[in-house]
Amino acid sequence: MATLLLAVGLVLVVEGLVYALAPSLVEQMLAALRALPTDQRRLIGLGAIALGLAFLWAARTLGA
């Protein structure tokens, strides 16, 4: 449970930093995402999931 709280906390910190430091960039990124077809957005999401799982696997392998 502590690991889950740590993971969620880290995600919130990173997301908060993006919105706090570059709000106009977030607007541009959202506009770019709206321009992409749904299938391409889905592939980006699946890629992000795969990359996140790879990071988790690497962290666990390294002893985290």
Straight-line distance between termini = 14 Å
How many domains in all? Answer: 1
Unreliably modeled segments = none
**What would you call the shape?**
flat
Helix content: over 70%
Number of beta-strand segments? 0
The radius of gyration is 15 Å
How much is the average pLDDT? 92
Q: Which series of helices and strands comes N to C?
A: HHH
Share of residues in strands: under 5%
Question: Helix- and strand-based class?
Answer: mainly alpha
What does this structure look like?
The chain is mostly helical and 64 residues long. It has one domain. Helix content is 89%, strand content 0%. It is built from three helices and no strands. It has helices at 2-21, 23-35, 38-61. The model has no long low-confidence stretch (mean pLDDT 92).
SSE layout:
Blueprint: H1 2-21, H2 23-35, H3 38-61
Short description:
With 64 residues, the chain is mainly alpha-helical. It contains 3 helices and no strands. It has one domain.
What distinguishing features does this structure have?
mainly alpha; 64 residues
